[in-house]
Amino acid sequence: MYKYVILYIRGDKMPRKLRVQQAGMIHHVIARGNNKEDIFNEDNDRIRYLQLIERYKNRHMFKLLAYCLMDNHVHLLIKQSEVDLSKTMQGIQQSYTQYFNKKYNSIGHVFHQRFKSKPVADDAYLLSLIAYINNNPKKAGIVDDLNDYRWSSHMEILKPSKKNIADVHYLFDIIDRNVNEVLPEYLWLLGEVNEDHVKAQYLKGRELEERKSEIYIEDKVESKGKRTIASEEIKSILENYNKEKRLHLSLANKRRLMVLLCDEFCDEDDNCISNNINVSRSRISGIRSEFLRGLIDSGLLNIYNEIKFELNELYI
What we know:
By secondary structure, the chain is α+β, with helices and mostly antiparallel strands. About 50% of the residues lie in helices and about 10% in strands. Helix 11 (about 250-265) crosses helix 13. Mean pLDDT is about 80; it is low at about 1-20 and about 210-225.
C-alpha cells in the first residue's frame, strides 16, 4: 500500500498536498535554502552534506542515482527504500541545519520548510533526468565545462568507481546497460535535455493513480543475503588481519580502516562505533571526509578493498 503523508502548517486554511511514497519508487528531490538563501558557504559545507547523505544511505538503505549541490539548493535522485522518503530527508536536512547553525552561529531554518519531490514515471527516461540534474552548474553559468564541477554526480557517471557517492553501477543495472553503452547518449543529452523534457517524465494525475499497483520493491542485489558485522567484530578482524599479513599498521591507519569497514558492513550509529573502536566521532567524520576527497593513501585503500572483498565472500 502507498503511504500518504499529510503535513499541516499552523495557520494554513488547507492541508498540504499529499506525498505519495513507497519502497521502490524513484523521486527527483529538490531542497532549497530558506528564502532562497545560500545553504553552502564553502566547500567544507558541501563535504558535510555529502557525508550526511552517505550516513543516511547506510542507515536507510536508499539508492542515490544522481545528485547536484548548488549554492542555494540541491538536486537528489533517490530510489526509496522501505523507509519513507520524508523520514530520510528530515534526517539529512535537520542534521545539516544543526551543523550549519552551530558553525555560523545562526538560528532558524536553513532549508525551505518543505522539500519538493516528484516521482519518476519510467526507468527508461532516467538518463535524461540525470543529465538534466548534472547540467545545472553549466546552465547556471558557474562552469563552462562540467568536468570542472566537483559537487555533482557528473564525473561519477564518466568514471564509475566504488568510491562514488552515487550508486552508478546500480543505475546501470536498472537501465540494463553498461558504461560504454550509456556514455554516448548521456553526453548527447547534456546538450539537449531541458525542463519541459524532465516534467514530462514525472508521474502525475490519472497516470500516477494507475501506476500505484505496478510499483514493486526490486531485490536489493548488492545486499541480498549479506549480514551486518558488529563494530567490535570488525576491530577484531582487522587486528587478526594485521598480524597474519605482518602489516605493522600505524594506529592512525588502523582507525581509518576500521571506520571505512564499519561504514561498509556495520549498521550501528556513530556513538556506538565510536565507543567500540575507540575513535572519536569528530575523527570518524574526518576519516569519511578524507575518503570522499580521495585523500586516503592508495596502499591503504588496497588493504581496505582486499579486506572488504574477503568479508563479502564470507558473508554473501
